[in-house]
Design brief:
198 residues, alpha+beta, Aminopeptidase, 6-stranded mixed β-sheet, 8 helices, 6 strands, EC 2.3.1.87, GNAT_dom, Acyl_CoA_acyltransferase
Length: 198
């Protein structure tokens, strides 16, 4: 992903990812423009994210927004939007009982933060291809492990196809019986922390 992709990536985040992602949909996140811009800035800074274009229409159809995390960096949620804060805190809770840095004996990991394929392009293995491309890139820059938080069964299956294992999972309803009460569909009723060595 390059600077020239910024506007199209922002559009895909707003019009596809935040519309479909279970937590964002459940909390009625609407259009978190500032948060989306911040994610893109981080992805561009670390230069390890990827995009897919339809070569016929020349339209952006998929993104994999990644960031490099270091063990000595303390994670502080600096977010004023209460709904986004809730989501980030939930994702952070996925890591409370497991230290992937220790697990993989490394000081740096690649975090697949957001992966999204435009609706009418799903089912063709593009998500798996983005994950595979990320794995290959992580190897190239000598990062030993990759992790992600999957928020539905479809993304979980993409990661499993690429050799990721589940390290932790939380049922949404167990985390918050009031705010996440509607997340009972078996395809999107839990979040998994998945990871693998490169």
């Amino acid at each position: 992903m390059r600077e020239k992709n910024r506007n199209e990536v922002l559009s895909l985040l707003i019009n596809s990812f935040f519309q479909d992602e279970p937590l964002a949909k459940c909390l009625q996140l609407e259009e978190p423009i500032d948060f989306a811009k911040s994610i893109i800035n981080n992805a561009l800074h670390d230069q390890c994210s990827f995009v897919i274009y339809d070569i016929q229409t020349k339209q952006l159809i998929g993104i994999c927004l990644n960031e490099i995390k270091f063990q000595d960096n303390k994670y502080i949620i600096n977010e004023t939007n209460e709904k986004i804060y809730f989501i980030l805190k939930f994702l952070n809770n996925m890591h409370l009982n497991i230290n992937l840095f220790n697990q993989f004996k490394t000081n740096s990991l690649l975090h697949i933060f957001i992966i999204n394929i435009k609706k009418n392009y799903r089912g063709y293995g593009l998500g798996s291809q983005l994950i595979l491309t990320t794995i290959e890139y992580a190897k190239k820059i000598n990062i030993k492990g990759i992790y992600a938080e999957t928020t539905n069964i479809y993304s979980l299956n993409c990661f499993k196809q690429q050799g990721f294992q589940v390290y932790h999972q939380i049922n949404y309803i167990d985390y918050d019986q009031i705010r996440l009460a509607s997340l009972t569909n078996p395809n999107q009723n839990q979040c998994q922390l998945v990871a693998r060595m490169t």
